[in-house]
Amino acid sequence: MKTIANLFFLMISCISFAQQGVLPFTGLRYSENGISAKELKVELDEATWTGNQLPINTEFEIQLVDPIGFLKENEMYFPGVELVMKNPAGDTLAYVDDLFKGEEFSGFSDAELSKLSLTLGFNELSKPGDTCSIQARFFDKKSTNDITLWFDVIIVDAELPLEQTSSTFGVTSYLGYKGIASGVEISSIAVEVDERQDGNNIRVLMIDPIIGLSLDEWNAGKTTMILYDEQLSPISFPIDQCVISAQQADGGEGIAARIEIPVIKERTSMFNRFRWESVDGKKIVDVVIH
After folding, report:
1. Same domain, 80 and 189
2. What is the distance between the alpha carbons of residues 194 and 103, in angstroms, rounded to a whole number?
3. Element at 219 (helix H, strand E)
């Protein structure tokens, strides 16, 4: 990738979450240090981004909705945004210490801060197949508070269809899971730990029902499992280590899915992410468990 282009920072309108976590759909990871937000959103061309493939000349936006942790001074807030982009080898492609720097920056009002966001894009000088690791740190210039967000983006041809949706169904619980679906409807998720006598405990994810999905579609679709370590780095986790099954849901509408995930004893803090998508990519179920 020779050039990074189209760095935009629009004052638009981020998930009430713990100190660190992973978002479904894009796999964006975050770590809080004094700054959090009501919701984190990642949009592709003004719709919800359902993956991490970015066509050339297409913009994506990371939004912090109603962030807290910024100090007010003279009725204004003074956020900064540090941006780092690297290739898979770890070489820095672009670095900006603060996108909101300069004499013309006079701070944000309450309304402007509530719609804090960062918009990025890559032009035609980028080449399909490139992978870029993007890290954005939103920080408070009047304190040491910040929040760091990072994820990998795969550049693809501009002619490919966008991985986006205007309609999602989501389930979130204080018990430690968040699920989002597009093209199908989910309304109930349960997560249990099956403590087995041999000590090989299993984390069980149940999604019941998934409305708008048949067993044939489920069996033909693609399933992915990702394990994140304590630093939220992805770990290779073969899907064949899991036991995945589905049956007709009670009442006959949709299906009920059950995913059994081995627990790695050595890890005291980890995230599992299960993703299923249909052959045409139009139906997606993505669940993050902590």
Report:
1. no
2. 59
3. helix 215-220
